[in-house]
Design brief:
5-stranded mixed β-sheet, about 30% helix, Aminopeptidase, 4 helices, alpha+beta, single chain, 5 strands
């Protein structure tokens, strides 16, 4: 099967929302706190429409089978500004990188990353590097990103407060 990678449009909002549900379902397999709230749908659509579409600091890339309007993969790319304290210059961040289970193994995840790499590289914001987070326990995602040339640079730890226990 052949796939097209393109930039999302306003018409893609509802289809991306459905894909986002698959992404949050995947994350919640590792940590139930990542399951989306039902009331979050409107907020996500507003974020997509008001902060990502047409932004020079972010984009959403989508994958769809040739000849179909079904979106089966997506990736959000954002540019983060210079850090006020550290020597971290403009850099990119990848969020929501997800391909539907039935369409994995076809190189879509790699193609979405390649398109994001190109978008970051062509930015007039002098993006030096870009990052992606994985959820603890998702060894498949960790291996995938390392196979794509990403290197781990941080580990995030958390501890509940007395209120969170």
């Amino acid at each position: 099967m052949s796939y097209q990678i393109r930039t999302a449009t306003a018409d893609d909002g509802e289809a991306l929302l459905e894909l986002w549900h698959g992404f949050t379902d995947h994350l919640s397999e590792f940590d139930r706190r990542y399951h989306h709230n039902e009331s979050a749908d409107d907020r996500w659509l507003q974020y997509f429409e008001n902060q990502l579409l047409g932004s020079k600091y972010g984009t959403v890339l989508v994958a769809e089978p040739e000849g179909s309007a079904a979106i089966v993969g997506a990736l959000e790319a954002r540019i983060m500004g210079n850090h006020p304290i550290f020597r971290l210059k403009n850099h990119g961040y990848i969020n929501g990188h997800f391909v539907e289970t039935d369409h994995r193994g076809n190189g879509l995840g790699e193609r979405l990353l390649d398109a994001a790499h190109e978008w970051f590289s062509e930015s007039d914001k002098d993006v030096d590097f870009y990052r992606v987070d994985t959820i603890h326990g998702d060894s498949h995602a960790m291996k995938f990103y390392e196979d794509q040339g990403f290197q781990p640079v941080e580990h995030v730890y958390e501890r509940p407060t007395d209120q969170g226990q």
